[in-house]
Amino acid sequence: MDSLTIRRPDDWHLHLRDGEMLSLVAPESRDFARAIIMPNLVPPVVTGAQAASYRDRIVAAGFAQPLMTLYLTEQTDPDDVVAAHRNGVITAVKLYPAGATTNSASGVRDFDVVRPVLAAMEEAGVPLCIHGEVTDPDIDIFDREAVFLDRVLTPLRAAHPGLKITLEHVTTSDAVDWVRAHDNVGATITVQHLMKSRNDMLAGGMRPHLYCLPILKRDTHKAALRAAATSGEARFFLGTDSAPHPTHAKEAACCAAGCFTAPIALPCLAHVFEEEDALDRLEGFASLHGPAHYGMPVNQETVTLTRTSPYPTPSAVQRGDVSVTLFDPGHPLHWTLS
Ligand SMILES: NC(=O)N[C@@H](CC(=O)O)C(=O)O
Ligand SMILES: [Zn+2]
Ligand SMILES: [Zn+2]
């Protein structure tokens, strides 16, 4: 197959930041119709009013259909969450364990404290998106997702069986199994976790543009993710987790976590699905399963992916003083979008 026409995809996990960076990266998600926008700004987006004004800044910066989220803190007011959802200001609430990832210092330390918010969300049908990693320093970074499933997510699910959950950026076969074993749960998968394993990041030299959280795992986990994404199962769908950082913050002694994939996500995905002999399932993963999980209509427009002779991933996008290096600069791409 040399050409594939699918309904226009959405991105169910996207970081657009704010200010100059927002102006730079908002147009770079042009391949997608809608996107769930992560609230981990500094300071984070914690109230409905803040989400509404952030939405306006995103639209002004050139991304037309942002779906907003609120950052769950131990101070979050259940009534504000429910009202923001009822008024159409937000699509979901995001749970970051405090300290788990970029800009998560205001996240949740004690999961019992947020139980009233979760109960109100369960009652009102507000979805919860979760960064699923424990943060205990004594837990090895490669085990943090699997331990989170046992220690946090399983009890949370049992306490709130009606809560619609999106387990974000799953990276292990443990998470794939957990998602399959629970109803009312969806999972996003990123491009980088489908394409790379920890050897790609660490063997023969450290590659900062492959460093993100949850961290890339071993090959067997990558294989489980590729099987899930190409299985046709509706619980798995695309969330790029495109997470831009200035190039100087990535190419640094302490490298910031996040891969900037938005501009090349679909060509990369087409190649992955082609390698798995599953191009006929790309539309489900990128364009159909996400809307079904969130109870939204699918997009009416289509996009066409065309196979081309390999061309290198562009190295960076730039605006004024800000430069952001793309995920895996120079890596060959085999598809283009028209
Ligand atoms: N994925 C990342 O490595 N980084 C994200 C945060 C997140 O999604 O965990 C970011 O905001 O930079
Ligand atoms: Zn995350
Ligand atoms: Zn993210």
TrEMBL record:
Domain of life from the UniProt record: Bacteria
Entry binding sites for Zn(2+) 1: 13, 15, 94, 241
Residue list for modification N6-carboxylysine: 94
EC primary class: hydrolase
Ligand binding (substrate): 15-17, 40, 131, 213, 245, 257
Cellular compartments per GO CC: cytosol
SUPFAM superfamilies in alphabetical order: Metallo-dependent hydrolases
GO molecular function: dihydroorotase activity; zinc ion binding
GO biological process: 'de novo' pyrimidine nucleobase biosynthetic process; 'de novo' UMP biosynthetic process
Listed pathway(s): Pyrimidine metabolism; UMP biosynthesis via de novo pathway; (S)-dihydroorotate from bicarbonate: step 3/3
Binding positions (Zn(2+) 2): 94, 131, 169
Cofactors: Zn(2+)
Enzyme Commission number(s) from the entry: 3.5.2.3
Alphabetical keyword list: Hydrolase, Metal-binding, Pyrimidine biosynthesis, Zinc
Residue positions of the active site: 241
InterPro entries linked: Amidohydro-rel, DHOdimr, Dihydroorotase_CS, Metal_Hydrolase
Catalysed reactions, semicolon-separated: (S)-dihydroorotate + H2O = N-carbamoyl-L-aspartate + H(+)
Amidohydrolase-related domain location: 78-297
Transmembrane stretches, start-end: none
UniProt remark on cofactor binding: Binds 2 Zn(2+) ions per subunit.
Subunit structure: Homodimer.
Function field: Catalyzes the reversible cyclization of carbamoyl aspartate to dihydroorotate.
Recorded family membership: Belongs to the metallo-dependent hydrolases superfamily. DHOase family. Class II DHOase subfamily.
Alphabetized PANTHER family for the sequence: DIHYDROOROTASE
Name the UniProt record assigns to this protein: Dihydroorotase
Underlying gene: pyrC
